[in-house]
Amino acid sequence: MSEIEDYKNKLFFEPKNGYDRLESGERLALESYCEDYKAFLTASKTERLAVRECVRLAEERGFVPFSAGMELKAGDKVYRVNRGKAIYLAVIGKKPLAEGCGIAGAHVDSPRLDLKPRPLYEDGEMALLKTHYYGGIKKYQWVTIPLELHGVVALKSGETVDVSIGAEPDDPKLVITDLLPHLSADQYKKSVRDFVPAENLNIVAGSVPYTGEGGDRVKLAVMSLLNDRYGITEEDFLSAELEAVPSYDAVDIGLDRSFIGGYGHDDRVCAYAELRAMLDIENPERTAVCILADKEEIGSEGTSGMQSLAFERFIDELCDTQGAKRRDCFANSLCISADVCNAFDPTWPEVSEKRNSAMVNYGVTLCKYTGHGGKSGTNDADAETVAALRRIFDGAGVVWQTAELGKVDQGGGGTIAMYMSRRDIATIDAGVPVLSMHAPFEVVGKLDCYMTYKGIRAMYENY
Ligand code: MN
Ligand code: MN
Question: Which end of the chain is less packed: N or C, by CB atoms within 10 Å?
Answer without folding.
Answer: N
